[in-house]
Fold these 2 entries.
Entry 1:
Amino acid sequence: MLNKYARAFFTRVLTPFAAFLIRRGVSPDTVTLIGTAGVVAGALVFYPRGEFFWGTVVITLFVFSDLVDGNMARQLGRSSRWGAFLDSTLDRVADGAIFGGFALWYAGTGNNVMLCAVSIFCLASGQVVSYTKARGESIGLPVAVNGLVERAERLVISLVAAGFAGLHAFGVPGIQVLLPIALWIVAVGSLVTLVQRVVTVRREAAEADAAAALQKGENASQGTSHGSGAAQ
Ligand SMILES: CCCCCCCC/C=C\CCCCCCCC(=O)OC[C@H](COP(=O)(O)O[C@@H]1[C@H](O)[C@H](OP(=O)(O)O)[C@@H](O)[C@H](O)[C@H]1O)OC(=O)CCCCCCC/C=C\CCCCCCCC
Ligand SMILES: Nc1ccn([C@@H]2O[C@H](COP(=O)(O)O)[C@@H](O)[C@H]2O)c(=O)n1
Ligand SMILES: [Mg+2]
Ligand SMILES: [Mg+2]
């Protein structure tokens, strides 16, 4: 949903910054790499210590690089297969660090096995949700569904909640409950999205296999009729 509705807005907002980086000679790949490094550092330095506010501030500063790199590539007319591969692969690394950071907090000082498990579930299900699309597309299917909770939703829900939950350290009472709520929402939403995508791939695969079988039958019968024609 965010990918559909918010992307156009952020493209407009970030285009001048992307153009500025291009003028400075920065490449899209550099932005992809530095953006990911910043997200990973923000997540793994701050979240395991329960410093959710500062972790979210650092991650937010870097996470928009994921919209800037593609914008730069398009402005340069240099969108490439390598760039698409690098972008998607490093997305998985960044997501792993964010939900891994939450899991490390709950496994340590946060001391909550259930929320540690929910964080790990968010991490794993997010990766599998993305994989369903990548694998479906790699076997030639359109995977014409996005689903309830895509990457943008996973990030916005968990980062907004973590940022506000972090205000607990500045004396705001009760607000830390937002993070567990967000993690449960992301976990359930990811599960629903996974089911949506698997059902879509199953239907598209069945349709594609049926069309291929039909085509094979037609080819065979044409081959037979040609063959019998030649014999006559
Ligand atoms: C007082 C409190 C302090 C709070 C501190 C700060 C809080 C800041 C809070 C939030 C900021 C969140 C920002 C999150 C921005 C996310 C942007 C982003 O990177 O989105 C990525 C997404 C996908 O990009 P790609 O096409 O490159 O990736 C594809 C994707 O990964 C696919 O995965 P799948 O979806 O299938 O799981 C892969 O399949 C594919 O391979 C891969 O290529 O980009 C978008 O979706 C574009 C839309 C982005 C929309 C961002 C909206 C941000 C909106 C609101 C910010 C809210 C701020 C509120 C602050 C409130 C606090 C005061
Ligand atoms: N280093 C990069 C990063 C991205 N691309 C291209 O942009 C597409 C992703 O666009 P986003 O707006 O989601 O970043 C990606 O599929 C590539 O075509 C690139 O070329 N090099
Ligand atoms: Mg990107
Ligand atoms: Mg990306």
Entry 2:
Amino acid sequence: MVALPSLSPPPPRPSPSPATPRRRPPPPPPPHATPSHRVRSRPATVVSAASGVTDGYHSTIRSLNSRGRHVPRKSLGQNYMLNSKVNEELVAAAGVEEGDVVLEIGPGTGSLTAALLDAGATVFAVEKDKHMATLVNDRFGSTEQLKIIEEDITKFNVRSHFLPFLEEKSHHRRKYAKVVSNLPFNVSTEVVKLLLPMGDVFSVTVLLLQDETALRFADASIQTPEYRPINVFVNFYSEPEYKFKVERTNFFPQPKVDGAVISFKLKNSGDYPPVNSAFNGKRKMLRKSLQHLCSSSEIEAALANIGLPVTLTLPVLARFSPVVARPSGFSCNNSGDGSSSSPTGHCRWAHIHPAPGKISTPIQLIHPHLVHVVAYKNPRYAATDQSPLSPPLRFSIRRRRPNQSPRGGGDLGFPRPRRRRLPPRHRPLLPSSIPGGLRRVACPKMRPVFCGNLDYDARQSEIERLFSKYGRVERVDMKSGYHGASLLFLDDGLGSTFPA
Ligand SMILES: C[S@@+](CC[C@H](N)C(=O)[O-])C[C@H]1O[C@@H](n2cnc3c(N)ncnc32)[C@H](O)[C@@H]1O
């Protein structure tokens, strides 16, 4: 923890004496962003017209101390920006201009907020730390140009809170907002997952992240071993561009790593290709990534049919998807071509068929935007139908035998915990924990069903209603750590199937 020196009023500098212990804070670090372009020589601290104060080392310390001594919290990623030039570069990277509406995550002491207000933007700021929210409020007073919400961005429903604000500020004309933020490093992936699919609200998202993370997000070459599902996600929803590196000396307290600014130009939701299942694989080798949908030979035949390579790019995936997935309603009645819409009314469901003969292969009911349900094929129906083109199989949630040792969450999309195998009489039946804070099901009849990629508006009650057709839903756990994921506990009764 860093003990902040009190600087109000700043004491006169004592003449240095070897006997006196040094009490003054270290001098301001040489502010240095290393832009890939536009290197301008400017003073380290710039007077903000909106705020009337400078944002540098001393002013940051002063504002942190202004409401009692405030020690930056590591758990909240509180590394404050000391260099106003970096803030200005952030604002410029987002092309913020007069009349723009901007979402800022974590305004902190308000240094970036000041730069945004100076550029003529109206700012909607979400700050988790009560102390910092009050501090920004004090700094800017009551202005029409700024609204501060004290909330955790990862639990915040951006759509329902931000859209009315956007409409009001843009005078009910359809206008895209922007996101500009010096993010706490520890929530960057969550925030990226939250914001990128919102191309109908935001045109561009400019974030100051950990340099390594920014490099990873901006990597568009899928042939490298570092390529991860997050890259598919990022490139699916946006066009990322690495802007410039920000050295760690620009922050207080100084983090252990450098930062970097990255911009994501968001795509409009109407243009997304329906390729959700491709998010599951690390490399986009179709034969492997999609082996749960059809057999390898069928995948290869489909590829040959449309003249595709085995390793995919996003546009190619978009062309391939309809060959293996047929759109259907969620409440499909064995005809497989239902067209009911999702609970939030956005899109249709795509029903993917299981690989022949793979009894416990996860069967994915994939919805381009809403939900991705992993259920398990019931061995009882293994013999009924094997062809991916015939009417859909009947599924049921896989049943766990009452005396079966609790298996890890691997089948549910969570890593399987390592367990020491106990003799049967010692095996803990129920309840036990699996990673992610989820509890095992207490009743052997209750089946956990994992739903991912939930829409931001999706509510617990909607999921409950959706699944209640297939059995008694004991409860729905909305996972906040995972982007839009929930786990629901379903008692489908002995004879019932999923979907019916
Ligand atoms: C890296 S500091 C940036 C502060 C300021 N924007 C600046 O440039 O100096 C991150 C800020 O985000 C806030 N924060 C941390 N976690 C948050 C969360 N989950 N939701 C909203 N704000 C958060 C912290 O309290 C802190 O003020």
